[in-house]
Amino acid sequence: MTKLDEITEKILRQIDESGFKQKGAFNLRHNGIALCHGDSEHIKIKKKEDRQGIDIFIDGQTKGEQVHIPVVVDASGMQDKVYNDFYIAEGAEVTIVAGCGIHNSGCNESRHEGIHSFHVGKGANVRYEEKHYGEGEGTGSKVLNPVTAIYLEEEAVFTLDTAQIKGVDSTVRETEVEMGAGSKLYVIEKLMTHDDQLAESNMEVRMNGDGSSAQIISRSVAKGSSRQVFHPKAVGNASCHAHVQCDSIIMDHAEVSSIPEINARHIDAAIIHEAAIGRINDEQLVKLRTLGMTEEEAEGIIIDNFLN
Amino acid sequence: MLEVKDLTFKVNENGIERSIVKNISFHVDDGEMLVITGPNGGGKSTLAKVLMGIESADGGQILLNGEDITSYDINHRANAGIGFAFQQPPRFKGMTVDRLLSLAAGHELKECECCELLSRVGLCAQEYIRREVDATLSGGEMKRLEIATVLAKPHKLCIFDEPEAGIDLWSFSMLIREFEKIHDKKKESLILISHQERIIKMADRIMVIEDGTIGAIGAREEILPKLMDKGDSCSCMNRADI
Known about the structure:
heterodimer, A: mainly beta, eleven-stranded mixed sheet, B: Rossmann fold
């Protein structure tokens, strides 16, 4: 088992809540190189020959297994770009725990760009968890720009659970999903920005097969002078259902733009969007204060639960 | 227990000061149930909010067990032992029912404890415990959950602002029994703001608030007959639900 330093261990605790154990299928990328990796009977991880990154092959016998592929960047000034491609065979059931944490104690920008593709076979069920986190006493910024492409075959189910809770100065997230007949997509996006941070999330979901459905829920809290932009787009090219919901709490001098877009190109495409931005409701604060909490405690609880 | 002296509360409407609560004085004894009733817009809910600290009094004094709590803010009054159930409780996106109940209890509740609380207000625990306290709950469900948050821990004084509003008759009967149980134990004092005759009939004493003042206060036996007579010609009591 590879010995990990204290900073890496600490970041892993933040980005991999279920626990990174160097068991089963895993790959830890640290400052641009694979620090340790392992395969399991049904999940094989292969290093790419032509560029940075890995191919992850998940066979159809995989049932309830987890793959952990965290990224840690703690060298100030590190510019890391990685291509990870997932091939999930028909009928597989798997949870992929990804996530990236940057510790920047220097004055140079540290950046990680994770470019992921998911090829999900017929009837496979995938849960993908991705948590982003930044820390460090340095003045150098921490930048995370994920690009995710998801291809769902017939009856495949994909849950995309992303969270960025703290410390990331700038992020631009690009997500594209192509959906086959009967496939289902669940997206849960949680985001909190503070100080002068910037977060932008662009997502396009194309429902190409009859009976496909998508549910996109985005919840965010913007504090300080931070800025957030959301642009989820659901395109119905077939008989399909989609529900897009963006809720944001705005605080201090923050700015939030929510631009949901729905595009129906089929008579039986049913697509709904909802978007709401507002400050913390005074009535919620008062209610929690009648339970004995201070205003600050009540505010913290409201935010924690909103992003839960 | 609770002593209120010369309590006043004013609002400023377009530069004109208007008194909503006008020099009100009353007391609530240990274990007593005081029902406050009166016409809509008379100042009952405002009075309750001033007692809880949600609105700040412009004059007067509030004593709880002899302790002057007039300057206490909401959370200090809650920690001093006052519980408050809102007429229109707020919803919380992302917060589950069991989480809210644990917050109300002041500690993490076990599943069976949440179930017991929900049962007391007529909610089927298994259906509700993991649900979010959001727009998916009906007004009546929210109202019963609100009452459960007050029942989640013992208080010296519980204030319920129109607990019957929006609640179906079956659940209302359960709530009546719950109030009776609390009252029978004589451990907590109760202030219920209500227009409902079944609630008014449970009172030890009744206080009628009209136009920000006490129109009448006294034992149930004394006030109720007057209200019944008056109820034929005014809207202060909801007799349709009897």
